[in-house]
Amino acid sequence: MRLAIVAAASLSIIGLASADDAKAAIRKPTQVPAEGLAPALATLAKEFDFQVLYRTEVVGRLNTQGASGAMTAAEALEHVLSGTGLTYRYLDDKTVTILPISAPSSAEAMGDASREAQEGSAGAISSAKEGKKSSSGGFRVAQVDPGKTADSATVNKESQTSGKGSIEIEEIVVTALKRATNLQDTPLAITAVTGNTLTAMGVTDVTSLNRVSPGLIVTQSNFSGSRLTLRNIRAAGEATVGLYYDDTPVVGSSGVTSDAGGTTPSIRLFDIDRVEVLRGPQGTLYGSSSMAGTVRLIFAKPRLDETEATVTAEGTDVAHGGAGYQTQAMVNVPIIDGKLALRAVGFYQDASGYVDDLALHRNGVNEHTTAGGRLTVRAEPVTGLTIDGLAVVQNSSGALDDYFLADGAYKEHYEALQPVRDDFQLFSGTLNWDVGPVRLTGIVSHTHRNFNYSYDISAFFRTFGALYPVGSANYNAFNSQAPAVANSPQITSTDTAEVRLASNDHGPLQWTTGFYYSNREGNFDSNILRADAATGEPLPVSAATLEGQRVIGDALKQFAGFAEATYDITERLSMTGGSRYFDYTRRATNNVSVVDNLVGIVASTPIDATSKQNGFLYKADISYKFTDHVLGYVTASSGERPGGANQVLGLPANLQTYQSDSLWNYELGLKSELLDRKLVFNADVYQINWSNMQTSGILPNTNFGFITNAGSARVRGTEIEATLYPVTGLQLQAAGSYSDARLTQNQTNQTLLATGVRGDPIPYVPKVTVQASAQYSWALSPTYRAMLRADANYTGSSWTTFPHTNAFQDYLPSYVTESLRAILSGPADWSVSAFVNNLANSSAVVNKNSGTIYGGLNNVRAISLAPRTIGIEVTKHF
């Protein structure tokens, strides 16, 4: 089992607990070369399955004479520490601390340290023994196995003592650079949040992630899924923010509008190790569609030597709706001790609907269910080789959340129901192999998404039919097609492969290089489908019910090679450089199989268009450690996302394809731990120059949008994060972003006359976002603990279009959401939580959409925040 080596920046009390005598007496072949003490301890921790805690200033740059032969863990530690002036003590049977031979200790101090390591606090209620999310103050993860991700590269929270009280600082090791680095030592604007903190915040899926990082905006799509935005880089087309499920990119469906970025699937976040939000272009290591940043979901991995399980049950009550519930479970089972294990996760949710259809006399029409699971198998057949297999299945069904804005919040007058089904599958295999001075990593994956939605367009036929005399041919033609829905079945399959090599020593040069390949194929239908006039249910697709149909194909093939290296010029000064070569081919096809002239599906020549492009992305970074706890950096980096081919019939030749857009990001950042490490303060300022922007348009008198290149933009902003630990158990956090994104050129080309002109703010993105939280954890007794947490999030106002002329149609007001959670945990590893989300029961509108297909621009469709939700959750760990 791979475990972290943890370095304490400030440790004044050391605990002592005896190890399991039988296990400690086992001798293993041990080969530790004469090298730096820190990497030698890393080797022992991995071979003997324990954690090592030490002070950075104690271990420093000491060297060891090594150890060779069949040894117990104690003998190996004695050999490695021989001549260093250091010794070791056990905190428990899985945790060893390194300290000077002359270091003082006391039984009371040892007991306190042991309890902190085992119990945790401030929301990280799990033990250091687990190798996952223990509660800590000053402990740093000095070195983990960089070839592995979730369970080894995690927060470790022990207690830092300062003066009279114990101050708790949460520190996280991240693998954002595709090697393990401490969060505060990574010269990158990055937020990392542990699974325990996500639970305490009530973050359960991707749609809630806007609460975890400054500048991250998650916008619910009109057609299910969501769009992720960072640093206000937002436009139709491929995603501007990459979403990764461990090392596998997860993309939306490009669908009938080529807008894959707007339908990112919502993934359940249960049994998760951490979330990493990387702000700014990540082009060299993560490639296309990470032009504004990357969000990484790192899930817990199987543990090879321990059986464990977790079960949760939750009941909720939603204002304007009713009762709902969900259950989740995890089990970890070693198959061959120390060699092979599996970890299985299952979940089911039945969420109450809260939108009422007044026309159909049905309440809670947007009720939805989600069911699925995850199976991970880990094998470590020999030392240094880890193989992970992953299978994920998630099936959701329900209905769209939108309503007619004029009807009032959560009310609609649709003649047809709007069902949604979203079935998602992911399979991947990952190999990590330590090969002497280098580490080899290989990842292959296959994702499959079967996505089907319908939205009511009856108002289109009613509105345009009313333009003609009652009983006329045109009047009858339009009204004969109502009630009806625009229905789109979409199947997308993606295969990816990545192979990379990374340095595996601890010298001044750290590097990563590799190759990446992906092939995405999508097959979509755009249907005009009749609905049952009595029930509103869309009818099954048949010759009798299908009024119009387009059959669409979309394929995107990408290849890339990349390299990035960091060189430590001195102990404090480092330089990083990187580059990525990309090559993509995009193909789109479109054929009308059923003509419907009323909505613009007219007989046309089939489309078969191809777009190709290649180029380079770059990154340069200089970082300097002013002190052990203050880091500054300057970065210049570029990003891009693929262009493509439009599927829209009747476009002029020069609009059938569009190119990639690209940007350059210039950034100055500071990362610091102040006030005796009671305050963590990070900040950055940046400017982004965005060129050849992809923008959406629509031809006159049609219902079908397309994408083209037009104009450029500039974004200037700042991001701030602060965490304060004023007293034991209390954690105060605040984060915010200010981002001014404006066009620097008019959005015009030879065919398209877009509405954006120089100086216009980019739509859908607020200038200001703020997140704040307070959390307090304390012991009620030797066996009971309590925690209280409050979160508040502010999102500034924005417009959905460039011209700011019609607030009813296009203005999104600012809003605030609040949540509260209380947790009581007791003996036998159980806990009970009570929570409230959207405490003020705000119905703030978070998305608007209008168009001819809805029956006119004033038939605005809106999506609001989910109403206030009150719930109770019971959790049991085994």
Strand content: over 45%
Task: Please state the oligomeric state of the protein chains shown.
Answer: single chain
Shape: globular
- What characterizes the major β-sheet? 22 strands, antiparallel, barrel
Overall SS class: mainly beta
Q: Give the radius of gyration.
A: 28 Å
Mean pLDDT: 84
Low-confidence stretches: 1-23, 103-168
* Fraction of helical residues: under 10%
End-to-end span in angstroms? 20 Å
Question: Can you count the helices?
Answer: 10
Q: What is the strand tally?
A: 53
Task: Give a nutshell description of this structure.
This protein is mostly beta strands.
What does this structure look like?
The chain is built from 10 helices and 53 strands. With 878 residues, it is mainly beta. The strands form 13 sheets. It has a 22-stranded antiparallel barrel. The chain has a 5-stranded mixed β-sheet with strand order 7-8-4-1-9. Strands 14-19-20-17-18 form a 5-stranded mixed β-sheet. Strand 35 and strand 36 form a beta hairpin. It starts with a strand and ends with a strand.
